């Protein structure tokens, strides 16, 4: 397939299986949500044109499977990432506890030139579930973790209702732009749809 010259910002979404990574991506790119959960196999991506400071960029959002057998997807998958999004389910403590593992996995595999300052964004998803009564990870606790990791921007979202999804991805794109460069890329035809979620937000760039 011929390569196309364009300004590409590569974003990778990591997190446990079922936290709503695919739903967040589909809500942002396609404004669609599906209640039917379908586990992502390996990795998939969607693209969306975004305008930042009067320039047009292609945001290439890579969605990964949260299952352990797919965690080590190889250096090629992580290479060239401009921003990494860490997603957890505010109703599942384990998914929050695993954020550090996902962050470390990314830094090891991607080997960014400046790991201390590489842009991450954290999303606490599914805040809509059970009217918030099922929540086990407080916003305060999540923000404290983000602060301890270098003041990572934090958003609370609902992929199902679209809450804060747009705001989160605008912040993600702006952070990606800090490391992004024009690259010659290949755009294979692949898309996937999947999980459930919901939100509220705070803080960015």
UniProtKB/TrEMBL annotation:
Among the record's GO biological process terms, what is one?
protein transport
Gene Ontology terms: cellular component? endomembrane system; vacuolar membrane
Sorted alphabetically, which Gene3D superfamilies does this protein's record hold? P-loop containing nucleotide triphosphate hydrolases
Q: Which InterPro entries match?
A: P-loop_NTPase, Small_GTP-bd, Small_GTPase
CDD domains, per this entry? Rab7
As for membrane topology, the entry says: Lipid-anchor
Intracellular or extracellular location(s): Endomembrane system
Statement: the UniProt record of this protein carries the keyword Nucleotide-binding:
yes
Pfam families noted in UniProt = Ras
Entry keyword set? GTP-binding, Lipoprotein, Membrane, Methylation, Nucleotide-binding, Prenylation, Protein transport, Transport
Q: Tell me if Thylakoid is a UniProt keyword of this record.
A: no
This entry's Gene Ontology molecular function terms read: GTP binding; GTPase activity
List the NCBIfam families hit by this protein, alphabetically. Answer: small_GTP
Q: Which family does it belong to?
A: Belongs to the small GTPase superfamily. Rab family.
Can you say what this protein is called?
Ras-related protein Rab7
